[in-house]
Design a protein that fits this description.
97 residues, alpha+beta, 43% helix, globular
């Protein structure tokens, strides 16, 4: 059985964006974040100190690209576009995302 991998420039940008965001989240100083990726896999990021806890579900990789290229505005645009969601928006904002 062979597997195929999307080698398009868009797929490369999505992967780069995801890796960039996850590297930054890995250095969170406080709190914790449970991130569900578009493929359904989950990862938890924890800061060195206790703090707010948030959950984010990314439905579309464009959310990661928006965040990398436009930071806070990209975060808001992705949320409004339904590319990511959370059960507690206040907790996400408390983490300083």
């Amino acid at each position: 059985m062979s597997t195929t991998r999307d080698l398009s420039p868009r797929a490369d940008r999505s992967r780069f964006s995801r890796l960039t965001i996850e590297a930054l989240l890995g250095r969170m100083p406080i709190g914790s974040l449970d991130l569900t990726r578009p493929d359904g896999s989950r990862v938890r990021f924890e800061g060195a100190q206790a703090g707010p806890h948030a959950e984010v579900v990314v439905h579309d990789g464009r959310a990661m690209r928006r965040l990398v290229s436009n930071r806070g505005i990209g975060l808001a645009e992705g949320y409004m576009a339904g590319e990511w969601d959370t059960p507690d928006l206040t907790a996400v904002l408390d983490l300083g995302m």
